[in-house]
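re: the backbone from monday

yeah here it is again, tokenized this time
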């Protein structure tokens, strides 16, 4: 793709905190730099506050949202016409869990959340999954605010992903809260999602080509591995101690018809997992 083609494709990055900061730092900005390379310029890759980025994405024609997921946006009810959108191959598979403070037993199913107060990211599929099980839900727009709500005791649980949750709590100087690894609320691929147009279709082709090349790049693979975006890497990082042993294997709390993406991209490349 030529640079001229890219000028029409605006990539809106959702600034959420430590993992995707407005100053260009953070895990997701680093991944975007690896993937986009010469595909997008500094002028077309725009980091904006979470809500502002989403509003601009839905209001501007021919824009792209990152990091995102077409399955996630549709599941959260934010888009009603997925056929009018296009997304890249997945960078990795993100898994969403419920986290609790150290010393508290993490939930192993949706039956364990009744009477609890839970903070989740606004626009997340998690709200629809958690609703109707007796919990009080609070939507937030900052991962730091969400983490602080758990630490302060304002909420009993938060939804979160790895490495995001680990990075935020490390910055705060605290231990990563506990969760039951086998209790997964939902999982989706992390992608670039675009409003469908001739320009964005070309952009997605270029992104997919870049992802294919990067899948054979040792430095890029090491970056994902270091961030514990695969199950094996997370297990080596500790897996949160006894919880990995006490949680029954195969426990699932996602209802039938769950959001569950293919484990491979369209080109057959297996997606690394990311504990979300």
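seq for it, each position gets an aa:
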């Amino acid at each position: 793709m030529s640079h001229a083609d890219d000028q029409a494709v605006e990539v809106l990055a959702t600034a959420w905190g430590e993992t995707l900061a407005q100053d260009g730092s953070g895990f997701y900005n680093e991944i975007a730099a690896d993937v986009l390379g010469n595909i997008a310029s500094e002028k077309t890759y725009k980091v904006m506050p979470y809500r502002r980025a989403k509003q601009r994405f839905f209001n501007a024609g021919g824009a792209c949202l990152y990091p995102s997921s077409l399955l996630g946006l549709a599941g959260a009810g934010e888009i009603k016409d997925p056929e009018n959108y296009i997304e890249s191959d997945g960078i990795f598979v993100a898994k969403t869990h419920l986290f609790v403070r150290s010393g508290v037993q993490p939930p192993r199913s949706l039956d364990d959340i009744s009477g609890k107060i839970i903070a989740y990211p606004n626009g997340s599929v998690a709200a629809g999954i958690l609703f109707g099980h007796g919990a009080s839900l609070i939507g937030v727009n900052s991962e730091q605010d969400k983490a602080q709500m758990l630490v302060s005791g304002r909420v009993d649980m938060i939804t979160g992903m790895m490495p995001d949750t680990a990075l935020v709590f490390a910055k705060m100087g605290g231990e990563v809260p506990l969760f039951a690894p086998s209790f997964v609320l939902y999982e989706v691929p992390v992608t670039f999602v675009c409003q469908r147009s001739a320009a964005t279709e070309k952009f997605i082709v270029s992104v997919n080509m870049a992802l294919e090349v990067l899948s054979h790049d040792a430095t890029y693979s090491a970056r994902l591995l270091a961030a514990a975006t695969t199950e094996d890497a997370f297990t080596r990082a500790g897996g949160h101690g006894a919880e990995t042993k006490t949680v029954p294997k195969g426990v699932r709390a996602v209802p039938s018809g769950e959001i569950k993406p293919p484990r491979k991209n369209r080109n057959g490349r297996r997606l690394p997992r990311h504990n979300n």
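Residues 9 and 101 are 42 Å apart (CA to CA). Residues 1-6, 230-263 have pLDDT under 50 and may be disordered.
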